[in-house]
Structures are given as structure tokens and as C-alpha cells.
Description:
single chain; 0% helix
Amino acid sequence: QVQLVESGGGLVQPGGSLRLSCAVSGINFEIWTMAWHRQAPGKERELVAGISGGAITTYAESVKGRFTISRDNAVNTVYLQMNTLKPEDTARYYCNDRLGTLAWGQGTQVTVSS
């Protein structure tokens, strides 16, 4: 049974940083390309960043240079380091594979506001 448990969200001022974590179980984690997605109120869920089993990374243009995705295969966890946060980064953040084929977790809320 696949389980994705996101954590690390919160309220932060513009320009601040947060680090999200996602603990993954129920899949052969080290071979899966994992990703972070986000969904803001009234908007479609969007792909933010992805990382292959070999640690090749991709990013949405809106976060390139500010966000860094990484993974630790020893503890089946994927991370998202978010720097220079903007109000438009406010959303609920979820991890999944790139296409969102796994069962979604509860996500973690990120709110960027002064």
C-alpha cells in the first residue's frame, strides 16, 4: 500500500525559506521518479519539480533558481528546499510521481504572506 506523508509547510514572509519533506512507503522508491506538485485555491494542480532515481532534476520555470528538489534513497524521502518565497508560491504542496499516479497524501500548506 502506497503512502505519501508530506510535512514542513507553514507561514513564512516573502523572501523566506521552507524545507518540505515527503516520506514514501509502499513502492521501490529508489527507481521511481518523484515530484512535488502544488495547488492554489481555485487553480489546477501544477508540477513544481521532479527528480529521477538517478537524481536528474527538472523544475517549473516559475520556481527555477529558487527551489531545489532532492532525495535520500536510504530513508525513502524526497525534499523540496524553497528559497526566496513569493506570495504566489502560496499553495498546498504534495509529493507524487511526475504524473500523479500514486495515491495522493494530505499535502502540506505553504502560505507566503507579510
